[in-house]
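Let us practice reading a record.
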Amino acid sequence: EELTRDRSAPTAKQRLAGIRHLFDWLVVGQVVPVNPAASVRGPSHSVRRGKAPVLDPHEARRLLGAIDVTTPIGLRDRALIGLMAYSFARVGAALAMKVDDAFVQNRRLWVRLHEKGGKRHEMPCHHNLEEYLTAYLDGCELRDDRKGPLFRTIGRGTHRLSTTPLPQASAFQMVRRRAAAADIATAIGNHSFRATGITAYLKNGGTLERAATMANHASTRTTQLYDRRSDDVTLDEVERVLI
């Protein structure tokens, strides 16, 4: 109860789970006789809609189209944003990719994502994503460094890619900077593109089950958190208030 006064319910539940796991380990090691946290109930928390802001397809296209791809940083940023939007990739999985995680199979470019829990997820690229990744790999001459990071920082004062992986915080700053340059007011972040891609897929006739497979979700309930089709319905209904 004390923790929930200044922390959210999910944070309290996560910390309680950590304490339970710690005492489980101590019980197994016979350090303590019982787990005192086993009977402690966490705060109730139910989520039906994710928090990440999303873009509509027009905004997403405008964001990608506004990137200057005559520079290495522009090629990199378009490829990263495109990857998260078209493959529903988590930013952590995208930034963990090596150059050889973009590979050709059946005459089509595929991506290999290393997800949570050591899971490996492979899927073919949308034709736009294939164009973005190919332009990035060729334009920045990355193909020979197969085991190097796919997405990299820019060397200080060089305007060229370094060999250092791009940190997640830097990716977030890049997304905000690109959104501002495209005159997009929505306060998007890295996770917004996963929700944007899933919502666009479902609006165009995709099924929730297929979306879950593409996003590498164990349950469709997780995928539903990213489905923002109801936002359109809500906006339509709000406009019925004719005052």
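A brief commentary: The longest helix spans residues 9-28.
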